[in-house]
Amino acid sequence: MSESEERVRDEGYDDFLDAVAEGEGFYLECPEGHGWLPPRRVCPECGATDLEEVPLPESGAVETFTTVHVASPEFVEDTPYVTAVADFGAVRLTGQIWDVEPDAVEVGLEVTPDVGETETAGERVLMFRPY
Amino acid sequence: MSHPRVSGVGLTHFGKHPERTGRDLFAEASERALEDAGVDRATIEQLNYGNFMGALSEHQGHQGPLMAEAAGIPDAPATRYESACASSGVAVREAVKDVRNGEADVVLVGGAERMNNLGTAGTTEALAIAADDLYEVRAGMTFPAAYALMAKAYFDQYGGSREELAEIAVKNHDNALDNEYAQYQKPISVEEALDAPMIAEPLGLFDACPITDGASAAVLVSDEYAETHDLDAPVALTGTGQGGDKMALQDRNYLARTPAAERAAEEAYADAGIGPQDVSVAEVHDCFTIAEVLALEALDFYAPGEAIGAAARGETTRDGDRPINLSGGLKAKGHPVGATGTSQVVEMTRLLRGDHPNSDAVGGEVGVVHNAGGTVASTTVHVLEVRT
Fold it and tell me: What is the pTM of this model?
């Protein structure tokens, strides 16, 4: 995507990335304590509609991960990269693990979220660093 | 309640046919199904058609009427169903409902997908749109990566090994050897599977289904229609179920179980008045080897954590107690995404009525087909039974 054709923002998602980049990550929580990422108007677990922004914990634990060798064109030059799902309590995040050798990643690794830029497309990407 | 009969089935060869258009593929499959059904084309009342990525691979939307025209029924109401890899499973389910409700007596169902014209990278990108774009695809999650995350979570929770997954690939390749429609009619070994290049760890190339072009079709008729027209249609669709789940893995309650398929299976079993113990054969959605494991547990053939070794133990091979994917499955027969759900119905019909090369391995009269969309955010399950 050329600079003149900058991606139109996705409300909620891009607001979330902005906040994570500032070190002020958040998620949306319903009164029952179910957590979600924006945009979200209804809790799909219990149907509550009064969702509140709550600060994201500074760190989470890797729950599952994979090293990707075959990527889509948007990520070809980023391979191999590690994509992980990490548990932040009420909410899980999906991101790439940076600053760790793929072989050194393990379930339970404590990580902190940040926003990086992909090598191939120069797009923003949610990523984790060791905490 | 009257159960629809499968009066005719048809497939194209599943394989690498990058230059063949979707409309040509579906025309061939539907022609075969009509011939097999012995019904007049003019009696078809509607087309239920499944397709996933035709807007990307062929720049073609509005495929319902296009495919009806290709099948020679341009005036028939025709609708394209899209539910990722479960697209034509959903198309079948809606047809079953219409026949049961008396809305229609003769329905053409099917699906088609053209994929190889996009190449590997293009197909990887196109398939990824079945995942959550904002929170999965933009983090670099491909489809193999999504199933790799589930496989890793499964290994972590229940145990399991790459060798056990390889045994599933070996089994499904063996099953496809005599299937003329299959993309791969060649055996592989566990060693070859383990030595193949990694796609997304722990899944290697031989854990994944190939990129496939192909089409499938079936003619469903009401019981009454089959009787009054003296059709030879011994296989009936006696149960249908569909389940859903949250789209992104990160938002699911389970990473190593597939509740959407569990719900679909429960509904289909109850609908048919059977239980898992009554099922003698199944075609399940093995887009990756780990997906077969998750399917067998969702269908309640095994408790969670128990199906990983089923192929290695010989329980699901053609000589086992309950053979799984006698067609070769998505793994060896191929996975033209939008065609897969109906192709499972086609293969199960042939297996049960006795004209499939692997029919001799079927030890009963009840079969189940399981078709999953995305990382199993949508699933259909159908029960097929011989009813003479």
Answer: 0.97
